Queue: 2 jobs
Job 1
Amino acid sequence: MLLTSENTTRTVDANGVLVQYHQAVPTDSTDAPVLICVAATAFGATAWGQNRSNIDALSKQFRTLLVNLPPQGGSDKKVTSDGPRTIFYSEVLRDFMDALDIEKAHFYGGSPAAGPVLRFATCFPDRVGRIVVDAPTGLGRSMFNPMPVEGAAYTAAFGADPTMERLREVMDIQISRPELREEAIGLRYEAAHALGYQEARGNIKGPPENLLTFIQDVRAPTLIIWGAADRDVPMDRALAAMWEMPNARVHFFGAGCGHWPQYERANEWNRLVVSFLKD
Amino acid sequence: MATQTLTDEATGAYASTGDYKVYYNEAGSGETVIMLHGGGPGATGWSNFSRNIGPFAEQYRTILIDCPGFGRSDQVTVTDPRDQVNARAVKGLIDELGIDKVTLVGNSMGGASSLAFALEWPERLSKMILMGPGGAGQSIFSPMPMEGIKLLFNLYANPTLEGLRQMIQVFVYDPSKITEDLIQGRYDAMMKNKHHLENFVKAMSATGGGLTDYTSRLGEIQTNTLVTWGRDDRFVPLDHGLRLVWGLPNAQLHVFAKCGHWAQWEHADRFNRLVMDFIEND
């Protein structure tokens, strides 16, 4: 069956918080390990937009759940929080697992979703198998690229004025190959303008967090993936994270890969991730 | 000569360098220090080194060259990499002026020009100062072209005040130091000779886009070299500084904090002291 956003979407009440997610499962197995892919919480980012090029390959091996954290996608527009985001989201993910009777899962999170996944692994270590992260934000200052990064001003401009033109500037920075941008722009724009989304954007606040202060405690084997041409989160942060973590390895995609390795290098990424998770 | 008496006009002269007629500024006496400007639209010797020529001229015969295709020098559509064209212009000028040996201070493109000169005429070179120089190829940590270089190319292709403002914004660490006068002055300089801008764009396609990559030849350069970098440089990546200090057999690297691509202007006093101490004592 061709997987689509529509035929995979579900919702669940996770301890009072509505969580919308996509599920796809291996056809030949009823007890496949679970993989939870947490979607980035950037303006207009969605689970389907992030992992649509991966769900087919991943769901041949794993019961694969692509999760929108509130208020992204179809998830809760009412819940609010002003504590550290990674902790709030860790609790949402725990409640989500409880609601679906999932004891343990592998996790994936990219960019701003990497923080919640890594924090979850420190709060609930028994419920985590292996972890894959793409280019986490929140790893502190680059040693080689002046910050704020090139992409920051464009992202802020799109946040303030969410036009197609502004969004195109963001994607020009984030996605290395021009031919891959249009589809990403379309999905992101639609989600950014979905009913009730912009009003709920400010619901989940919280102080800035530095992942380097807690990732030493992540015991789960972790694969850190980065595009060498990432203009949004500088690639030397992969090395910073690797040195802080007791059980991490790094994979760089080369010069043609920007901030979206799971999309820009989907086939290679799928093979790499499946192989790591089954290791 | 007191710093405040120096002006572009009072120190300016023309010389034939063989291939081209070039404009240069000269002040002071003693050992010769030649400063080579960067490759941005409207760049000239004076615009790059206005905060340096005074202090340097108190100790050295200090020369700022407008490279071919810049400022008041000849228009040119280069077919060789620009750094090599510039190096030939330096050689032509010192032949013309009867100067045996020089110290080169090369900013950005001028740094690549200095590397080209060092490889071709090492016997004419005393010391070399490379400031956020081009010519070191790919970065290990920063996607290229970098943010500033993208804006620079855009500005050449589409020279507007708005584009200039956008580029200058990321040029220095602290954009609040950039006055409207400076922007307007740079804009006027840029628009003064539109042929220079058009020729640069043509040359970009003719030369495959840029400066020579000297990384494989750094080991040949024995010249005593000081490399400086701005920590916050968005035009040429900081890791090139490490590459140069490893690759050049006789080099040091100095990194300025809170500094973009314009150390000699952003940290003029500090820069002048550091470089003059290097020339004098190292």
Job 2
Amino acid sequence: MAALRSSRSARSRSPGRIRRVDLASFLIQLLNALQYGLLLFLVASGLTLIFGIMGIINLAHGSFYMIGAYMAFALSSLTGSLAWAIVLGVIVSVLLGAFLEWALFSHLYRRDHLEQVLLTYGLILIFEELRSIVIGNDVHGVAIPALLDHAIALGPTLTYPVYRLFMSGVCIVLAAGMYWLIQRTRIGMMIRAGASNREMVESLGININLLYRLVFALGVALAAFAGMLAAPVSSVYPGMGTQVLIVCFVVVVIGGIGSVRGALAAALLIGVVDTFGKVFVPEYAGVAVYILMAAILLWRPEGLFRRA
Amino acid sequence: MTASSFAARWPSVLLLAAVALLAAFPWLGAAFYTELVTKIMIMAIFALSLDLLVGYTGLVSFGHAAYFGVGAYTLALMSPKAAPASLWVSLPASMLAAGVAALVVGVFVLRTRGIYFIMVTLAFAQMFYFVFHDTKLGGGSDGRYVNFKPSAAIGGFEPFDLGRPVQAYYVVLLILAMVFAFLRLLLRSPFGRALQGIRANESRMRSLGFPVFRYKLAGFVVAGVLAGLAGYLLAAQSGFVNPELLSWHQSGNVLLMVILGGSGTAYGPIIGAFALLLMEELFSSLTRHWQLWLGSAIVALVLFMPGGLSRLHSRLRARFLS
């Protein structure tokens, strides 16, 4: 998250903001925290579902975020519109997810965690190298769509970019959509059943392989979508995937494996701790989320929203 | 001698040949290769320390680079600008610092298991990374130089000089042999047996009355101390430290060495370290996209050859001898 972070820390380093935290700048930081937390949730929710339902540790999940961001860059310069880039990118990432599940991950379900770690580590190397071959190693910017490229005033001297509000709004809509999908639909029922008892779902005649492929493709698409959404504010750079991956691990550990609700709570918590850490203790802010994780581990080793 | 008795003995023949080759190596290769093999042996010590956790205790740590880095940074921070640090002070200090770091982290991470353990060890290693990367303590992201190799002088007597590559080579080879022997003895001791028992069946060990948490913590600390030793040697050899020593790539690579060589086998990690680093040396000079080939090879290895190279070797042996 270095670029997400650096764009925000540049913001918080502007004079006056650190010394005198008035209401408006507090509000700005709170909005930043919300936006960062919601974005983390998009990536982490797919990760936690894949953990919870398939029992797979997927180190390559951050790569999907990276791939999404690079697709936003490449496709928006190709089509001239970020919206089209996102539409195309989501389709590509769903296909990519289904393909990877079919070709690789479906062979890992009954294997050791160690072999899952190994294979997904190999995938990271492949994705990073392909990225370097296809696009290169430079940092790229992605333009904010003109429609959203404004700022609204939050006080006499402070403004807030509309695109960030838009990002938060989209994430909230998606989170609500996921809640509806998981809690209210038949597929969601199968997903929840699959998470608690794989064999039982299979013996009820539900095609578990198809369900797995669906969940995996959904997770990939969510991570890639998060990357595409973040590309205009974070810029696009090598290694962005692994940084988001490790923070997402912290999210999943705090929230509890397999719990989407836990991932939401943990992601927002981390958004707040990280953002306000940057404001008050900039040197140690990188460490703050891990200290939070350590504290939660002492208190509840299975995470906040532990599954029975 | 029948064919099968020779075949049963050939691993020890091979081992003897490998040791002889390593012992004679500086007289065969150019100076560059002597330093390369020194570095590989240091990484082999690192891999051996991780295998105590992964292969024998059943703890898949994805953050072992943290203790490696703490050991390296301890040397860098203890080295004066214009004079060498004493080996006899700085080496124990590095190992102690790495051990303390492992103790503190271990108390937290060993409360978790399985996938959680993998993620939490990774996250804590990342925390150490940020400590060295973001604060001025170790020179930030640029790192810090170790201007002089640690001196082994005791009074006026200097048994060896780490500044000379060939002497450094033999010191590292000796330390590798000592670490190997130490781990063999440790795993044969009641303590080592208990660790392997925990790997096989933790709840049974607990019901037999073993304080499982304390055993795991002790194993975690021993592995951390040995990783710190390897980090110290690497910092002494390369002459500088930077946060990349603690990066998650480092943790991933050492885990790769362990698994590639075969975890839970005596020589596996050493074979893995040599295989990975020699391949890297060979292929990165041939192709710019070595990572792509490495990644593809790993994926293929997992899909088609579960168990790693030395498991492959034992499977082949079983096939041809039966």
